[in-house]
Amino acid sequence: xxxxxxxxxxxxxxxxxxxxxxxxxxxxxxxxxxxxxxxxxxxxxxxxxxxxxxxxxxxxxxxxxxxxxxxxxxxxxxxxxxxxxxxxxxxxxxxxxxxxxxxxxxxxxxxxxxxxxxxxxxxxxxxxxxxxxxxxxxxxxxxxxxxxxxxxxxxxxxxxxxxxxxxxxxxxxxxxxxxxxxxxxxxxxxxxxxxxxxx
Amino acid sequence: xxxxxxxxxxxxxxxxxxxxxxxxxxxxxxxxxxxxxxxxxxxxxxxxxxxxxxxxxxxxxxxxxxxxxxxxxxxxxxxxxxxxxxxxxxxxxxxxxxxxxxxxxxxxxxxxxxxxxxxxxxxxxxxxxxxxxxxxxxxxxxxxxxxxxxxxxxxxxxxxxxxxxxxxxxxxxxxxxxxxxxxxxxxxxxxxxxxxxxxxxxxxxxxxxxxxxxxxxxxxxxxxxxxxxxxxxxxxxxxxxxxxxxxxxxxxx
Lengths: 199, 253
Description:
- The complex is a heterodimer of chains A (199) and B (253).
- Chain A is built from seven helices and two strands, in the order H-H-E-E-H-H-H-H-H.
- Chain A has a two-stranded antiparallel ribbon.
- Chain A is mainly α and 199 residues long.
- Chain B has two domains: 16-127 and 225-250, no CATH class; 135-211, no CATH class.
- Chain B has helices at 12-15, 18-33, 38-54, 59-83, 100-124, 129-138, 143-172, 181-211, 228-250; strands at residues 88-91, 97-99.
- Chain B has a two-stranded antiparallel sheet with strand order 1-2.
- Chain B is flat, with a radius of gyration of 23 Å.
- Chain B starts with 11 loop residues before the first helix and ends with a helix.
- The mean pLDDT of chain B is 87.
- Chains A and B meet through helix 1, helix 2, strand 1, helix 4 and helix 7 of A and helix 2, helix 4, helix 5, helix 7 and helix 8 of B.
């Protein structure tokens, strides 16, 4: 879930944009011309994958996949997320121009944290530990993104606290499903193409 | 993929220089997003609405986008009026009270976000992504950001074709989406297959480009020329944005 335009006050929009700068800087630094096609293709892969609707009980939701993106792309996940958000804003009018910084912040930093937490374990390619730890981290990443989004939403004022709380509770079932699916993806990728994880 | 639906047309915004559109839209979005007074929010919405009409986009498509977008505003309307403290407008059942400030802030959000949506539709969606990429490079956006943007866009179609093929294969074998661990496991395999295909294609593209001597430079072949109409629109746009900004912050009108 991203924050749309016109809700947040100027200071919080500015803060989001400013705070996501360091992560983006490091990410773009790592994004050498050699890595460009691979990063872009994986970004489009994530863009397409996040459009798939997953049934959860009576409703359906789409996955965030930022945890897995972090695990696979490492620091390059931040630029990838920013680009995916820009494309969503242009093509589907999700999110927006002024909230690009905030949304990059709420999606990007949890992805980076997820990478830092589990790339050591995944590098060892243990067939059981890697999917479990990776899946758990990805689930927590979704929750963290939900909490950060809710915190930003709360800067709009007291009237938005309930919406923010609802947002966090909506992220809970998604994070469970995302943890399960990410675990399966990691175990599959480790069997078929382990070099994907050499970020 | 149903993308770039609005980029074909012959209205003023379709013919306008993308550089002008991007600069005006960015400024306008920031100014509108931070408007504080109702008068100027209404004015912004009216202006944006006019622009949407001028851009002559397919009505049905626009309506679908508007409805989808306003589902989010509905969430705000369902929560904010009940949870803001302050003057009570009227009582609903039991403890539910509708607050005046709450209604006002929900209204503000709806007006501002719709105004920005109208502007995005009329100014950004009327250009193709290729035009936007070129315009961004002429506007001196860092080349790595532009390349990632362009490559990602270029390959979304390829990857989504692949995804469709896999999905079709799954359906032919009788797979149905349900809330079950089985479904989640197969969605996991499905996503894994998408990533493997994109990774492999990425490596291939990288090798092919390296063989052709790619060193990180993208040469620009489209050069835009500012027409008279573009300059008039630019001047008018900047003027209007300035008036709205100062009017809103220093209160005349």
